[in-house]
Amino acid sequence: MVDVARRAGVSLKTVSRVVNNAPHVQQRLVERVLAAVEELGFQRNQLASALRSGQQTATVGLLIEEIANPFYATIAQVTAEVAASFDSLLITASSEEDPVREERLLRDLCSRRVDGLLVVPAGYDHSFLKPEVERGIPVVFLDRPGGGIEADTVLLDNRGGAEAAMKQLVAQGHRRVAVLLDSTEVFTMRERLEGALLAFPAALVREQVRDPATAAAAVADLIDAPDPPTAFFGLNNRITVGIVQELCRRGSRAAVMGFDDFELSHLMPIPLTVIAYDTRELARQAAELLFARIAGQPLRPRTIILSTTLIERGLGN
């Protein structure tokens, strides 16, 4: 960057502002910096061309929570397929449920001049994206809504799915039902818990259950209580796996309900019911909505809610 600044006859700060697409840089300075980049032998790339012409970069950004989770891996795969159908590349990043990291990554993606953003939110305030939206970068939130900004959103029917699942357990005669979840700070967990409690307010609620190991520990503690639950409801797939593990180890015949279907659920050694949905459809609708906005579709922000269904799984079914 120092060599570029020297060749262009501008300050290092000006070079940085041009590279990062900062506002209010005089066009003549932008031209000088980009000319210096090419004169110094840097490989000409699409980004430099787009910075000069104001055209799109044929790239979109996807921010998810955890790349190793099959749910988010599927979202990334489908989004990449949709992007390819629009002759665009996908840049994927993971926030690891950290709002600070989320903001840093989103700002970085914007600095790379992506044509649009797909975001699974970690934080509650995304108002920092307003200047980018005003400059023409559309944003679509999926799985969870964003905060502090009007934007398209594609969600699952978390509350309705959990309510239907709990109603089924109650109809089966269960009156001691334990609901295991991560944290109500997470939108999906909060919605699912509210749906479950709407159907059965007397449910036993255990929070801070983050993975199969903590789920198994919670189940063990509840089973050892004087009046153990006759049914367990895991509010995500990893929790459900931990529930099944501990019940099998104990030889318990307690019923199992789980939000999210998961790979090999049909091979679980005990019967269970899962709240299933089409993850590929969730990703496809969000990605296609984003490209519609990139193409200039002028409609007001929309919220799309995808339905869920109860499916019997396990070797006993």
Keywords:
single chain, 317 residues, alpha/beta, 434 Repressor (Amino-terminal Domain), Rossmann fold, six-stranded parallel β-sheet, six-stranded mixed β-sheet, elongated
What does the model show?
With 317 residues, this protein is of the alpha/beta class. The chain contains twelve helices and twelve strands. The chain is elongated. It starts with a helix and ends with a strand.
Q: Element order, helices and strands?
A: HHHHEHEHEHEEHEHEHEHEEHEE
Number of helices, where a helix is a run of at least 4 consecutive DSSP H or I residues:
12
Share of β-strand residues: 15-25%
Oligomer: single chain
Report the CATH superfamily of the largest domain.
Response regulator
Strand order of the largest sheet: 2-1-3-4-5-11
Q: What is the CA-based Rg, rounded?
A: 24 Å
Ranges where pLDDT stays below 50 over 5 or more residues in a row are 48-54
Q: What's the CATH C level of the largest domain?
A: Alpha Beta
The helical percent reads: 40-55%
Large-scale geometry: elongated
- What name is given to the CATH topology of the largest domain? Rossmann fold
Query: End-to-end span in angstroms?
Result: 64 Å
Number of DSSP E strands: 12
* Named CATH architecture of the largest domain: 3-Layer(aba) Sandwich
